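Hi support team,

I'm filing this because I wasn't sure whether my run with phosphoenolpyruvate finished correctly. The job status page said complete, but I'd like someone to confirm that the output block is well-formed before I use it downstream. Pasting the exact inputs I used:
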Amino acid sequence: MSADSPSVVSTELRFAGIPASPGVVSGRLAIFSHEELRVRPTTIQESQIPEELHRLEAALLRTREQIQGIQDHLAKSLGEGKSDIFEAHLLVAADSTIAGAVRRQLELRKVCVEHVYQHVIHAYAQSMRDMEDPYLRERAADILDVGRRVVYNLLGRKLADLYSLDVPSIILSHDLTPSDTALLNRQLALGFATEVGSTTSHTAIMARSLNIPAVVGLHAVLAQCESGAPVILDGYAGLLIVHPTEQTRYEYGQIEKRRLAVEQSLEILRDTPATTKDGRRLVLSANVELPEDLPLIAESGAEGIGLYRTEFLFLNRVHFPTEEEQTNIYQQVVQASRPHLAIIRTLDLGGDKLPTHQGLDPEANPFLGWRAIRYCLEKPDLFKTQLRAICRSNPGGKVRVMFPMIATREELVAALGLLGEAREELKAADIPSATEVEAGAMIEVPSAALIVDRLAPLVQFFSIGTNDLTQYTLAADRTNERVASLYQPTHPAVLGLIRRVVEAAHAHGIWVGVCGEMAGDIYMAPILLGLGVDEMSMGSVAIPRVKKAIQSLHYGECQALAERMLSMDTEEESRKALIEVAQRSYPELVT
Ligand code: PEP
Ligand code: MG
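And here is everything the job wrote out:
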């Protein structure tokens, strides 16, 4: 069924999108939009001006209280420093230049204060946008954000706000950026649905690690829904059901019961190894985006962290984190991984992970642009700060670091050179740091996969980023739902590249993992196993299911399957073969 043609069963409406994070949840809808309210100029009398100014004072006070509340919440959940954007917002809400301009305009134009305030804010934001200094240009967004909040308060309206939900809700929005998602209140955001997006966008990846159901790609649904409506969000089938009937609720209750029973049955596997029936042992490790996810590592049975995405520390803030702050967080990451190791990936900004305040101007093709290692190599100070902090995360011990988006050998050589400099600097300054550093390259650009034999001698491991490798191999933007059908991780070309990387790694005596979303998908376990990867890193929630899948498989059979799949003509054939293996080998996991 298409999202544009909802079927009506009594009052129930069903919208179909792309399932992005599994699970079913029911609750009230909270519609989140960046939409501006347009306030018309209502004429006032001169004598009303004091009253209007008084209303403005009250709205500013309320705004400051709200921002303070958000700050407190974020400081508690994300740590101090992460909420410094809201520090900047507080300054805007207390800005006397804006207040003075509003007063003058009120006296001059004699129209309602909400209109005057909106007008002043827009003019002020425009003057910021015209500034030379990229930092000041970025302030325009803060000014507009605060302005919107003040206008809502003046009108006595409630701004549906991601960060300050007051009841458990299912969020519906046109889009959610990874930065928005990082700020979600986990206790109150039960799930989310968006009009755009795809399964390997970082927003969807985060939903899976937050373990909340998500559906993306629900075209044109916003106009047909209202905030507060009761809904069921089905992250398995990719459905948003508005005003569900009693019958629908009952059916979903049954699904939930079955899911819980399977989950409970997997708990006993936590301390068992991921070994196939014929003895092939794999390492299953966890992908982590936010420090709050660290407690989940031990619970999931992960053998350490295979991908710590450091860029989330750099989003939603005015100033990048200092070396001390990063050291502190990486130490927590290393600590949470014990007795295993953590692979800390260097900054992968760009693509869909854009910081708000660091002057990364919008690009025509952000995934092909100034991203990840390209950005870091042009900012050696920033990069070395991070590398030093990583080396300091385990004084006297071993750390693992890896570089994202390597496309050329020169990039890898340059990154390793800066890593060497960072280590030397720490030694010279007598700062306690790791005695052993293992460096790895992410293989996620086809050019790297094709020269992998020339990269292998430089590193201690490879980690294949299948999310990007798929998008670059098939030239299909991973965040664009319009080309989602072309985004094929089991396309014979992608499988061929993975095989090539595994062979080169093993020929050079190094291990190779997969840390893209494929690794956490039970249908993909047989092919990754069969292609010979040594490690699979995934959102920790997925680990018990993937472990069960691996324990149910034969390595020998999976190798034969890989041979067959490598010579298949289409992705459709591969998909059918994988569904057949999953249904035969672990039917209880296949829903
Ligand atoms: C990948 O590309 O597969 C990967 C793991 O990195 P990210 O999803 O952060 O780009
Ligand atoms: Mg990647």
